[in-house]
Amino acid sequence: MKTPMSPGLCRAVRTVALLNLGYFGIEFAVALTIGSVSLFADSVDFLEDTSVNLLILVGLRWAARSRAKLGMALAGILLVPGIATLWMAWSKFTVSTAPNPVPLTLTGLGALAVNLTCAFMLSRFRHHSGSLTRAAFLSARNDAFANVAIIAAGLVTATVWRSAWPDLIVGLAIALMNMDAAKEVWEAAREEHRATT
To answer: Measured between alpha carbons, how far is residue 194 from residues 100, 176, 188, 189, 190 in Å?
Structure first.
């Protein structure tokens, strides 16, 4: 049985997808310019969030069983930023230079503003349509926590410890958070799938 599309949910998910796509470009460019692992991980995460929200727009028109299967696929997508972060972190171990803390902190602040806006928009729909909207909400929520850590890494690098390590530590923590979100979405999707069989 298909779930009727809520115009409010559809509008919120579309807006969140556009915000994520827009900030991906900004953060990715800054990450490459200053050599930041945490910004790189977070920018890839913005691109992943764009994909998740576009898939949700399609998936909300589907029957519950199909939505559950899509939720399982989204759990795999949530792992992509973690894998990209590990690759970037590995390359950073060989060239251990600290990223410029000012653009790191300012870009983290911008990302936090975008993610808080997205989390707020999605929070009232997080229990609608099971694992799909849960995936979007968890992504936005986790990203906001990650952005606070990026800002902290920038401040620590500027004032206390001029090293690549604060950025690396935060980048790896972002990867772990995404893996945990993937597990939660997978479990929610499996429960949804079991309920339809």
So the answer is: 49, 27, 10, 9, 6
The per-residue b/e assignment along 4-18, b for 16 or more CB within 10 angstroms, e otherwise, is eeeeebeebbeebbe
- 53 Cβ contact list (under 8 Å, min separation 6): 13, 14, 16, 17, 20, 136
pLDDT tens readout for residues 48-102: 888 878 877 877 777 777 877 877 887 777 777 777 778 878 877 776 788 999 9
What backbone phi and psi angles, to 5 degrees, belong to 2? -80, 150
Record the tokens describing residue 34, joined without a space.
């200053």
| Torsion 155-118-171-184 (CA) sign | positive
HSE at residue 167, side-chain half, CA atoms within 13 A, is 32
Q: How far apart are CA 111 and CA 41, in angstroms?
A: 12
